[in-house]
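Lab notebook, bench 4. We co-purified these components, and the gel suggests they stay together. Before we commit to crystallization screens, I want a quick structural picture of the whole thing.
Request: model the full complex, all chains together.
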Amino acid sequence: DAGITQSPRHKVTETGTPVTLRCHQTENHRYMYWYRQDPGHGLRLIHYSYGVKDTDKGEVSDGYSVSRSKTEDFLLTLESATSSQTSVYFCAISDKGGNYGYTFGSGTRLTVV
Amino acid sequence: GESVGLHLPTLSVQEGDNSIINCAYSNSASDYFIWYKQESGKGPQFIIDIRSNMDKRQGQRVTVLLNKTVKHLSLQIAATQPGDSAVYFCAENAGGGADGLTFGKGTHLIIQP
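Here is the predicted assembly.
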């Protein structure tokens, strides 16, 4: 999607290894979000950011950490990947939070073996 | 359970017919609602939104209806085309905090030729 890119698009990793997913935006939006999408659960919020170095937990934050050192980048880290973290991860951006629509990235498909 | 949900996981319609996708929400504090379309292998894409001070909003071939009395949201797609095949999500802002939107699980719309 225009203005937001996720990397990598696909990744296979082993249980117990650290993994970092990157979300990069060129829209200068204040809010950034990480979601995971699993069959039967829809999109669930992992962490979000409301400014540089300002982050908070979502409903499924256990096992994940985030960092936002500059406006354009929001990193999601799995400190020690587990098979339950196999999922498709989406980043989203918004200039005004939950009162306006988000723009989503194309997603990262992560497989933990 | 989730505060936003859908009545049917799969909807099959004939090409050219109108499609209606339904969504129920339970949070009376929600004042902003969005419909997203997600095609296979892609991120969700914004379709149309509506605020709680309205009960109907129209876009190009799409209409969203909001019934606050029964906490029901619907998406109507006119003259359904093959390109409309996708999963459709509704989302609500549940008060509009920075943690943003809550998403339903999605309805898979299948277009029959």
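The two ends of chain B are 36 Å apart (CA to CA). Worth comparing against the SEC data before the next meeting. Chain B has no helices and eleven strands.
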